[in-house]
Amino acid sequence: MVRKAPDSNSKSNGLTDVVQWDNYSLFIHDQRVFLHSGEFHTFRLPVPDLWLDIFQKMVAAGLNGVSIYIHMGATNPSRGVLDFNDWRALQPIFDAAKLAGIFVTLRPGKFDFINAETTAGGIAHWITSEVAGELRTTATDWTAAYEPYVSGIIDAVVPNQVSQGGPVLFVQIDNEFNQTPSHAAYFAQLETQYREGGVVIPLTYNDLNEGRNFINGTGAVDLYGLDSYPQGTTSACLNPTDWSPVATSYHSYHLSANPAQPFYMPEFQGGLFDFWGGPGYDACALLTEPAFQDVFYKHNWASNVKLISYYMVYGGTSWGGFPFPVVYTSYDYGAAIRENRALSDKFDELKRQGLFLRSSSEFRKTDWIGDTSTGIPGVTLNGSAAFVTLLKNPDTGTQFFVTRQADSTSTANISFTLTVPFSQGTLTLPQTTGSIALNGRQSKLIITDYTFGAAGALLYTTASIFFAGTIGARDVLFLFGDADQSHEFALVLTGAGTRSASSRIQFTNATAAGITTVAIASGAAGLLTVWESPSQLVLFADPVTAAMFWAPAIKAPTPSNDTVPGFESFWQFGTNETVLVGGPYLVRNATISNEGSTLALRGDLNASVSLTIVAPLEVREVTWNGERVDVRAEGALLTGWLTQSASVREVKVPALTEWKFADSLPEVQSGFDDSSWTVANKTRTNIEVKPLFGDGRVLYGCDYGFCEGHVLFRGHFNANGSETAANLTIYGGFSFAASVFINDRFISTVSTNAQSASDDGQLTSADILGVDHVNALFAFPDGSVVPGRDNVLTVVVDNMGNEEYPDEKSARGIAGFELVGGTFATWKVQGKLGGYTNFPDKVRGVMNEGGLFGEREGWHLPGFDTSSWTPRDLSEGLPGGGAGVGFFVTMFDLAFPRNTDVLVSFQFEEGNTQPYRALLFVNGWKFGKAISPGILDYNGKNTIAVALWALDNTAVSPSLELVIDSVLDGGVGPIATNNPVWEPRS
Ligand code: IPT
Q1: Which tens digits make up the pLDDT trace of 93-129?
Q2: 937 in contact with ligand 1, CB cutoff 6 A
Q3: Confidence of residue 757 (pLDDT cuts 50, 70, 90)
Q4: Is the terminal CB of the chain with fewer CB neighbours within 10 Å at N or C?
Q5: Which reaction does it catalyse (predicted)?
């Protein structure tokens, strides 16, 4: 069923002919593919059992690829230490991908080399301090620093390459770098390491826009692609309905840059990150709404793109120390799958496009013939407000007219007609329904000479194709179009069958023999069976109804000679068999057994729904998640009802009460003993900003092993009585804060304000870098300094993460210090317990803990005994209402029914303007808003800790609740938790 003869003789490859390409598209095992991929970062969902959930959802949208950054900083916490355990493991990614049937582009980066709004762009923090040479060059200390990590990646990749029956298709070796001589030499060095290590699949690269880097010359990669974020980045979510026009340069750029390769976009805007103080992720989802996907994604198709990955399809959570300073914990990205793993309306649009691409083999090889601006030979467009690009398959003659508004941002409703050549002469479209409509920001493919299934011949269509293929003995064509527009298509109706009796559908015999023209009048909503016979089924629906359908791949019960070993679950390689299933929230997979009579479906329900199935005619029995469903044949369809289990109504979450409290800033109490702390006495640093003033001592946490989270500094001085203030320059990154105390007295908190940087409606890199530090004079209150003995200035700094390229070696800590009227003797520094070489929590890893006292003690971990702590509600804030840091801990039980997937979030009060900052720990993980099973134990005890940092002497009253976003009957299966409990710490 799936192995086919090669259809091109002039292909190129990496080092294996299992993966090849020509100027049109990629080939895997000699078959053309449209690589339709989405980005997902497993480090942003540190629960390995949930990776299959995301992969299944992506495949259900018709995608066949996933692009994954691996985070060097998390897996290589210190020099020579590689930790590919727990959620950092790669094998479970590959296993889940193979099970779901999705090809992997691995992007291990290592430097800024992933960017991804993560600290130091993914470069391990220890490198930012320990490496003197320029990063991402051939500097020897940099090379020595990165090579072990790349070796670890190579070892994991080699046995999982597509050439070995694994899912790994490409390795992208660095991220968006320009080809200066030193960068190019570094690329060449990297490539040598991958090749010598046994990586034979193509090495790829993502250029920053149309940069022409690494196509030819030193360091050139096998397969080149360009990234594009046409709606902009940084602060575009502030104005979500302001569209940028589509980029008209793509096609000509590809032709001039790498015409011998297929057009590859390794990253195309799938959403956008939000920033501290930003409008929230719903705005980013609106910026990249379904209409955006419709117009911009199809414009990529019109540019003849045949490999694409949307950044992000699932964003997830930048928990712990992962964010770079601009972004907060949620990395929802306004993506098609939201942070809590819910499917959005963007997912529906992705699926409408994904199933079309999966269905349309003729679309995998197309010549770009022309567009409205160049003119298209033989084609006349009547309607100046429209814009058309013609792509044509040179072998089959199939034509794809990609239509949109001439002004791609226009919201006007327009209509047009098209006169086109096709197999039977010339044709004006539409024939009977007047004109083709575009409702505002809309794009449509008008298609001629398209085939489907074994014998389906579609002469043309102005309606969109949702699905085309064979189901059992029938050729099935499922079209859709807006209910307030009219649509028309013409095809050969085969077999002895029945036409729809709907008054909205008009059948006419076309002039050419055997062809029937079908006109769908506006007002046709819901699902219509246009034509059914034993050999053919034609369906039409409005777009929302169409998106209620799923087309799960039916894995062959036993691998046959036709399937490619290892690819049993992969559409096009293991199986071309499917069914259509309408109604459920999600269909994860389907099998057919009992000699074809039983269809077993697995998936999720968010409500009780009616079920509509198109299956082979032999199917008589249907099960849903293992339970029999009553179905009856209604014409060509099987219909039934799926009842959501009553147990979902039992799902409740408790209010968070019975908090216990302990002070977490003993450092500002008299007599605090910091003798175990590190003496900060270095006078050299590799960090970019050198000490600005003081006495040459370096007071950056990372130079002492404390690169993540809060770091505390204590400056001792023997007072002579004339000390009046400390002058400090403190670096923490965009939106950081730092509190300064003299002995046990609070002086003040300084911070940089995200909002002020963006009040012009824009947030530029200058805004961000300009607000990464504060210089201030911290005046000592009267009587706070005691002459003749040791006095201590304590500085609590929040490290917001390191910058991305080229500023990864970011200063975080105190860059300048001066004691007005005296001199500092010793400086002490303390961050996470053990620093990056000796941190105790190897499971959650180096990114989890910072240096607050409670974190050092492990108060955030489950199992820590708080029985001696004071009962105090979180809403009461800190005792005394003063500045400081306190820990609040509570526990609660959950008992969710099995086979439910509960999407839950923690919510602090909306629009908080109170002067506090808080860290939320869920079962020991420094986590943000949306919480997944695996982090929460859905059937057991859970521990929540909040580190509350009151920024000044104002009482604060935080509130925190656990809320259920939705309850799904189903889910991916059992989710293991791995939340190590507290153990005594030294
Ligand atoms: C592109 C990066 O490659 C990616 O890692 C991520 O940071 C993305 O931007 C924005 O979310 S770079 C491009 C926008 C300049």
Answers
A1: 999 999 999 999 999 975 455 678 999 999 999 999 9
A2: no
A3: low
A4: C
A5: Hydrolysis of terminal non-reducing beta-D-galactose residues in beta-D-galactosides
